[in-house]
Amino acid sequence: MSGERPIATAPMDGSKVTVLWRDRDEQENRSIAQYRSVQRLKPTGGDWDETDEGWWAFVDSDTQIRVEPHSWKPDGPDEDD
Fold first, then answer.
1. Rounded mean pLDDT, 64-70
2. 23 Cβ partners below 8 Å, 6+ apart?
3. Which residues contact 75 (CB under 8 A, 6 or more apart)?
4. What is the pLDDT of residues 16-59, one digit of tens each?
5. Which residue, among 81, 69, 76, has the nearest Cα to 10 in the 3D structure?
6. Residue 79 gets which letter from DSSP?
7. How many whole angstroms separate alpha carbon 19 and alpha carbon 1?
8. Long-range contacts for 26-35 (Cβ within 8 Å, ≥24 apart)?
9. Confidence of residue 75 (pLDDT cuts 50, 70, 90)
10. Are residues 17 and 34 in contact, defined by beta-carbon separation less than 8 angstroms?
């Protein structure tokens, strides 16, 4: 896939970006996600700590999970579709 960048270069300011990650079955996934720091999580309520910090993505209309993406794609035309 062209246009992919290392996840370490992705914006971590709470903006939403397209990330690529593998699930436990090694299936490649592409999701809109945002990096959420503890400082961003705590105002939402609940008992958040450093283990909750990371990339969060919706996997369906009701469910968010923390994912471990390996790369991300900036907004723009998808060159490989």
1. 96
2. 29
3. 17, 18
4. 999 999 999 999 999 999 999 999 888 888 899 999 999 999 88
5. 69
6. T
7. 12
8. 29/67, 30/73, 31/57, 31/58, 31/59, 31/67, 32/57, 32/58, 33/57, 33/67, 33/69, 35/10, 35/11
9. confident
10. yes
Give the span between the Cα atoms of 7 and 22, in whole angstroms: 13
Tokens 């105002």 sit on residue: 43
For residue 6 the two structure tokens come to 């290392």
3: left (phi over 0), alpha (psi -120 to 50) or beta: left
Query: Structure tokens of 61?
Result: 């209309």
35, 55 contact by CB (below 8 A)? yes
Predicted structure pTM score: 0.81
